[in-house]
Amino acid sequence: MTVTSLRDGYVDMPVRRLRQPGDRAFGDDLPSQVSLVDGALRLSVNTFAIDDGDDITLIDTGASNAWHPTMGHLPEALREAKIAIERIRTVAFTHTHLDHIHGLILADGRDGFPQLTRLLVPRAELGMFREETRLERFHNHAQPLDAGQRVSAHIETIATPGHEVGHTCFRVMSGGETLLIWGDIVHVPSLQFDQPEITWEFDADQDQARTSRLQILAIAAGNACYVAGAHLDSPGVGRVFRTETAFRFESL
After folding, report:
1. 0.70 cut: is pTM over it?
2. What family name appears in the similarity comment (predicted)?
3. Which residue in 47, 90, 142, 226 has its CB near the most CB atoms, within 10 A?
4. What structural domains and CATH numbers belong to the chain?
């Protein structure tokens, strides 16, 4: 098994997107370890290709030209990684926010993955996916993705609702090692490992998002798993360790 991190780009977000318990925004009390770019939080946008030697499963597709112009670079990342798009037969989404799904269609309107045979969408978000008019050609092609489902012999799903109602992680297992591709469990790695109670304005259910984050961090740290995150600093892959009070992340 080979897993490749593919950077779709980045997005700069205001600090007010971070939420302290009680739904309080940060002001001058933002911890010093959080670095800003021109006063904004810079979030990498990553997708991940899983190659089992036969076919490639792509987890999330980036934003294409549906949001900020700093995203939509997945096609270039695939070329750089020498991944032939015709080998990508399965696309699976962690959730249906636009920076994860719109890469199905290239900026010029062509299909991003012309040999696609399976499009897996968390069951609870199928309706949300089918509201995306730009992706109308894929509405009937989408198949529901459930918790505990086997995507392949080496990939299974874990329900991690909160950031969105159907938010899903993918557990990839091979050769005695495990990788958790966890979508939007963490948005700001310089803060949310040390303070996992911090949530994100776009978390649909902030309490549930906090609970899911703590559960997955505990699994990752307790089982020596590798993790891969959509918004961890590129390449977005590393390991989680417990500290006396919370967790820490070590990038590969």
Report:
1. yes
2. Belongs to the metallo-beta-lactamase superfamily.
3. 47
4. 2-251 (3.60.15.10)
